[in-house]
Design brief:
The chain is of the alpha+beta class. The two termini are 41 Å apart. The chain has nine helices and nine strands. Helix 3 (109-122) crosses helix 5 (150-166). Strand 3 and strand 4 form a beta hairpin. Helix content is 33%, strand content 16%. Strands 1, 2, 5, 6, 7, 8 and 9 form a seven-stranded mixed β-sheet that branches. It folds into two domains: 4-63 and 176-194 and 210-254 and 287-329, Nucleoside Triphosphate Pyrophosphohydrolase (Alpha-Beta Complex); 71-166, no CATH class.
């Protein structure tokens, strides 16, 4: 496990001065991604005296609505089998609307439902609306071949719409985080992921200070394939300007209200789709909104954070506690 002490002696490395070579190396595990905690620090004494929080973090609404262990959801899918062919229910809902607009093309609900069902089958998730028995479901998952009627697609679509509506207020709350492309420089990855997810350009001094590297996450993944995430923090210059940037970018990216909103990459099965263009567009649509939340150093977890983001929050609190707060309390030299 890498700790915060793995950063520079001051606990930080300015973005303009670091590269993949001078960020403290994590020799034991590959660095497969980055996280960037965008935060605002209130310095106005009057605001602090009035009860305003000293620190607030920007949390983004993710495109996942986890359904692990929810019987109401899992009962619509065939159970996992010991041989691993059937995987049970998807971890997240296929968020759906009455149509989809992607790469300038419009797809109707039946086309989208067919693509979602095909994607599910390739993952070993077979809905009961498609296969009546476990044996039929196993055969479909094994061969990835099946025929589906209009009525089955309509039922599947209505099911996804129902769960989309039921979970509308339970979107994950996330920090900026994403995967690193093979061989990608960490700062380039950080800049790309921050722009894709929040619309903020971390090189624009009008919006933020230089990002600071604070350490690596604890290793995660299966044995033999453990990896870590490089964690950064970026202090925003202005609370309202940051939200305006996020909101305006969201408006530009979702002008019709029918843009992609789903963690699953079912776009690969849409007819006539340019997969590269669709993948790039999806990358800018993985969040659906964001706002600042007051940071309680003793209870930094938002109720809708997943385990990964809770761990990032803990690292941020450790950074503030060890690196920032003590420095601010040092007596001034005469």
């Amino acid at each position: 496990m890498a700790s915060l002490s793995s950063a520079s002696s001051s606990g930080s490395t300015p973005a303009s001065e670091f590269s993949a070579q001078n960020i403290p190396c994590c020799a034991e595990f590959p660095v497969s991604g980055v996280a960037n905690i965008l935060f605002y620090e209130e310095t106005d004494e009057a605001c602090l005296a009035a009860g305003e929080p000293k620190y607030s973090t920007l949390l983004l609404e993710g495109d996942r609505r986890h359904m692990d262990g929810v019987p109401e959801w899992e009962n619509h899918w065939h159970k996992a089998t010991e041989d691993g062919v059937l995987k049970g229910a998807p971890h997240s809902i296929y968020l759906s609307k009455d149509k989809l607009v992607l790469t300038g093309k419009e797809f109707d609900k039946m086309t989208v439902a067919a693509a979602q069902m095909k994607h599910a089958v390739t993952k070993g998730w077979v809905p009961k609306v498609l296969a009546e028995t476990p044996e039929m479901a196993h055969s479909i998952a094994s061969t990835e071949e099946f025929s589906v009627t209009h009525e089955q697609l309509m039922t599947f679509h209505e099911l996804m719409i129902s769960f989309t509506n039921k979970t509308r207020g339970s979107k994950n709350q996330e920090f900026v985080a994403g995967r690193r492309d093979d061989g990608e420089d960490l700062f380039k990855c950080l800049k790309r992921e921050t722009w894709e997810e929040s619309g903020v350009d971390i090189t624009d001094k009008a919006y933020c200070d230089k990002p600071i590297f604070i350490g690596y996450s604890d290793p995660f993944g299966s044995p033999g394939r453990k990896r870590v995430t490089a964690i950064f923090v970026t202090k925003m210059v202005n609370y309202c300007d940051t939200l305006s940037c996020v909101d305006s970018m969201l408006y530009l990216r979702r002008p019709t209200g029918f843009e992609y909103e789903c963690a699953h990459s079912y776009f690969k099965h849409l007819p006539g789709i340019d997969e590269c263009a669709a993948k790039a567009e999806k990358a800018t649509l993985e969040v659906t909104g964001g706002k600042f939340f007051p940071l309680d150093l003793s209870q930094p977890h938002h109720p809708l954070m997943d385990v990964k983001n809770k761990a990032f929050a803990d690292k941020f609190v450790a950074y503030l506690t060890k690196a920032v707060e003590p420095a601010q309390k040092k007596p001034r030299r005469e």
